[in-house]
Design brief:
The protein has a three-stranded antiparallel β-sheet with strand order 1-2-3, with no helix packed on it. A hairpin with a 5-residue loop joins strand 4 and strand 5 (53-57). 0% of the residues lie in helices and 46% in strands. The protein is built from no helices and 29 strands. Among the domains are: 1-61, no CATH class; 200-252, no CATH class. The chain has strands at residues 3-6, 16-20, 27-29, 43-47, 53-57, 62-67, 70-74, 78-81, 84-87, 92-96, 99-103, 107-109, 115-117, 123-126, 131-134, 138-140, 147-149, 154-159, 162-166, 170-173, 176-179, 184-186, 195-196, 201-204, 209-212, 218-221, 227-230, 236-238, 245-247. The chain starts with a strand and ends in a 5-residue tail after the last strand. It is mostly beta strands and 252 residues long.
């Protein structure tokens, strides 16, 4: 398999592109990322030669595009006008011709189609005169009149004493959050991990502890210790056949 590493054409923070053979497209990844190759819809394929493609940036605030001059879809808080992304009114999530259609979380549309802040702390959505929903770490009281904070270790709850999902490092049992083992990032009980606290480690059920993945360039692996993600920051990729990390070579 021919691998082409492109050192230019991907603007910050996506500073490198990888193109596989004659595939009509490429992947960009962020140099500061520890999550491996991140394909980005904010880039489009640009023909470099007959067999190689590179990444080029979309226009500013554009989610998808077909060239640096032609946006197809904008990020929230912007609308598409004549192939470019134009800012919506302040605190507006979606708009059309400068008129707001919906607001960002914590705001509502008033009678003049402007976004006003919801009056209650912890509100996700509201109307001009009523509370509709609360943020994930809040719950709505029985009267629907206010949002109340969940327990400090709870992420989603239906009352102060009834948690359904806990923050990282804790697990839920009988609606209460309990602390995971010290080396766990996430868990379902107090004796094993779903994911480990340190990158490049997996939970070894044989010895009931987090163990380093095989190879110094493997960032994550499954419960069998098989590598699933390599250190792309230092130009390593995962071979899907051998499940080992190999270094990219630069042909530029």
């Amino acid at each position: 398999m021919i691998i082409k590493l492109v050192e230019s054409g991907c603007p910050y923070p996506y500073e490198r592109c990888i193109c596989l053979g004659s595939t009509p497209g490429c992947l960009c990844w962020q140099i500061t990322s520890t999550q491996g190759l991140n394909s980005s819809s904010s880039y489009y394929s640009h023909l470099i030669s007959v067999t190689n493609y590179g990444c080029r940036p979309c226009p500013p605030r554009c989610r998808k595009c077909s060239s640096t001059e032609a946006c197809l879809e904008c990020f929230d808080e912007f609308e598409l006008i004549s192939n470019y992304c134009v800012a919506c009114p302040i605190n507006c999530k979606k708009c059309r011709l400068g008129v707001c259609q919906s607001c960002i979380d914590g705001y509502y549309i008033d009678y003049q189609q402007k976004c006003q802040k919801c009056p209650l702390i912890g509100t996700r959505t509201c109307t001009i005169d009523s509370l509709l929903s609360c943020l994930s770490n809040y719950w709505m009281d029985n009267n629907g009149a206010t949002c109340i904070n969940c327990d400090v270790n709870c992420k989603i709850c239906s009352s102060t004493t009834k948690c359904s999902s806990c923050i990282d490092g804790y697990y839920e049992m009988n609606y209460v959050c309990y602390k995971c083992k010290s080396d766990c990032l996430t868990c379902t009980n107090g004796s094993s991990c779903v994911s480990c606290l340190l990158s490049g480690y997996y939970f070894n059920s044989t010895i009931s502890m987090c163990t380093q993945c095989p190879g110094s360039n493997c960032l994550s692996c499954n419960s069998n210790g098989t590598c699933t993600q390599c250190d792309s920051i230092n130009n390593y990729y995962l071979d899907k056949t051998t499940k080992s990390c190999y270094k990219y070579f630069n042909t530029t």
